[in-house]
Specification:
Number of helices: 9
Shape: elongated
Radius of gyration: 22 Å
Helix content: 40-55%
Largest sheet: 7 strands, mixed
Number of strands: 9
């Protein structure tokens, strides 16, 4: 099912774009009512544009401002079809866009039950990563300091980038309190280095080669990268967004395993946990 998700998101974006083109062409050449076909297609495209142009680390779970306008637009197009003022192509595209938005919200965005293969209060498994300098490291590098491990999908994910930006804004405060922050992704070293250059912070930028650590922890998202991004050097497999906090002895004291990739915890949550556990 994960590979279907990879194909789905690329196909849904393509469908919405094609719908806009068809609506514009029909409205300009033969049917002025075709402009109504823009209503089922534009909310999803506007949502994606906002994610990239005005990045946010979290959205509402059900995206009502995307879903209900799409529903209303589809109803309008079907009503026009019933009145003989819209063709079968218009009605088909409207219904397909509505189905796609529904699947995006209720299926694509969500993960099934995802238990972490590590126990709260127990020593964290000694999984291996590669540092930005190309050296192999383990979680032992955090020994003696509380640490936040943030597993993110890659530079291509605007929600991940927004979440990283949020915690980077808290960097000075975390550093003063002796907290280390590690950003972990299966993306290439060059892509990770590009990310590191965007933020003047001394985070641990780590690569999870072939998702070995994510697989060991049970958080790998097989086929989770949108189809086509492999051409930009990204692996087809990625990771489910995950935040873990370790104490000074390397014990796991907090885990955030979101069941929806569009919903992430705020940095205040991490700081609250660190304070509650007496780590800062």
């Amino acid at each position: 099912m994960k590979s279907l998700k990879s194909l789905f998101i690329s196909a849904q974006i393509t469908l919405a774009v094609i719908t806009v083109v068809v609506a514009s062409w029909l409205a300009a050449t033969s049917n002025p009512f075709a402009v109504t076909l823009l209503i089922p297609a534009l909310p999803f495209l506007i949502f994606l544009a906002r994610l990239f142009l005005s990045p946010t680390a979290r959205t509402s779970a059900n995206l009502p401002w995307v879903f209900w306008p799409t529903v209303m637009g589809t109803v309008v197009v079907l009503a026009l079809f019933a009145a003989g003022k819209a063709c079968w192509l218009m009605s088909s595209l409207a219904v397909m866009n509505l189905l796609g938005v529904f699947l995006y919200i209720r299926w694509y965005s969500r993960y099934q039950e995802r238990p972490l293969k590590a126990e709260l209060g127990k020593p964290f498994p000694s999984v291996r990563f590669t540092s930005l300098e190309g050296n192999e490291v383990t979680t032992d590098i955090f020994s003696g300091s509380p640490a936040i491990l943030m597993f993110y999908r890659g530079n291509w994910c605007p929600l991940c980038m927004a979440q990283i930006r949020e915690i980077a804004e808290q960097y000075q405060s975390l550093q003063e309190k002796g907290v280390r922050v590690a950003l972990v992704s299966p993306q290439s070293h060059s892509q990770t280095a590009s990310l590191a250059r965007q933020f003047s912070v001394q985070f641990d930028f780590l690569r999870d080669d072939h998702n070995r650590a994510a697989t060991a922890l049970g958080i790998v998202d097989s086929g989770g990268t949108p189809a086509g991004l492999e051409a930009l050097g990204y692996d087809s497999d990625t990771v489910m967004p995950t935040v873990l906090i370790l104490d000074k002895e390397g014990r796991l004291v907090y885990q955030h395993l979101t069941d929806n990739y569009r919903i992430r915890p705020e940095p205040a949550v991490f700081i609250g946990v660190l304070e509650e556990k007496g780590l800062i």
